[in-house]
Amino acid sequence: MPSKDKVLLVKGSKTGLGDRIRAVLVGLIYAEYTNRSISVDWRDGMYGPLNENVFDIFFEVKNLRYKSVLSLDDADVMPLSWKGRIHKSMDCVYIEDGAPTWDREQAIKKYSIDFGDVGCKNSILVSWDFTQLEKLRPLLPIDIKNESIETIEKWAWRRYLKFTPEIEGEIDKFFEGINGNTVGLHIRATNEFSLEKGGVGLDKYFTALDRILKKIDVQRIMVATDNTDVLRAMMERYPQATSQPKWFAKPGDPIHLDSSCLDAFQMAKDALIE
C-alpha cells in the first residue's frame, strides 16, 4: 500500500556522480529539518541497469526515515510538473515536455521544489538539483550554519550517508597492504569542466605534491581522475602514484556521458571507491 508519510523525493539528473550526491545531501538536510522522510530515485540507467535503483546498492541513509521510491504515489505532489510522472526519470520527463533549450534556473523552477519554502504541505515533494543549499542555512545547527558550502556538505555526508557493505568492502580491498601515508588527488580534466570552471595545470599539482613529499614519506599517491593523460603524467613522475583500475573515455570527454562505456554500474563503483 502506498506510503502516506510526507516525503522528499530526490531524482537523479544527467550530471556527474558527485553532483548527484550533492543533490541528495541537500535533500537530506531539507528532509530532516522539515520532518520528512527521504527517498532517492536513481533508476534512470545513468549509473547502472535501467529501472534498478542503484542508490540503494551504493548507499545507506542514517538518522532519517528512508522510503523506497516504489512505495510512493503522486496524488499530492509538488512541483505539479511531476503529477502522474514521479516514477519516470528527470530526463524522460524533460523530453516529454519537449526538451527545451537547457536553462538550469528554469528547470529548477519547473522540476524542483523551492528549498526556501519550509512550510510546503504536499505529501510528496520532488527535487533534483544541488544549488539551493544556501537557502537551508537558517535551518542548520548554530555550529555549522555559517560554514562554507563545502564544509556543510561534508557535515551532511557524515551525518546522513554511509556506503553499503559491498562498497565498503571494495574500498578496504583497494587499501590492503598500505600502512604508510597516502596522499589523494582529485583531478577533473574534461573540456566541459575547463570551460565552466577553468582548468588547473598539472604543474600546480606537481608543485604541491613535491612540497608534501619533501616533508613526509608517502607510500601511495591516489589519483582520482577522469583523464588518462593526467594519470599517465602522474605515474611517470611519481612511482608511488596509482589509481582505481577503470574504463576511461577519450581524454577531455566526461566519462559518465560517453555512450561507449559498456558497464555504467562498474563505472559508478569505481568513482565511489576513488
Descriptive overview:
The two termini are 39 Å apart. This protein is of the alpha/beta class. It has helices at residues 17-33, 55-58, 90-96, 104-111, 149-160, 165-174, 191-197, 202-215, 228-237, 264-273, and strands at residues 7-11, 37-41, 59-61, 77-78, 124-127, 161-163, 181-187, 218-225, 241-242. It is built from ten helices and nine strands. The strands form three sheets. Strands 2-1-5-4 form a four-stranded parallel β-sheet, covered by helices on one side. The mean pLDDT is 88. Helix content is 36%, strand content 14%.
Short characterization:
By secondary structure, this protein is α/β, with parallel strands linked by helices.
Order of helices and strands, N to C?
EHEHEEHHEHEHEHHEHEH
- Indicate the percent of residues in helices: 25-40%
Shape: globular
**Which class of secondary structure composition applies to the elements?**
alpha/beta
**What is the CA-CA span between the terminal residues?**
39 Å
Instruction: Summarize the biggest pleated sheet.
Output: 4 strands, parallel
The strands making up the biggest β-sheet line up spatially as 2-1-5-4
Average pLDDT across residues?
A: 88
- Report the total helices: 10
Low-confidence segments, given as residue ranges, are none
Determine Rg (CA atoms, Å). 20 Å
Strand content is: 5-15%
Q: How many beta-strand segments?
A: 9
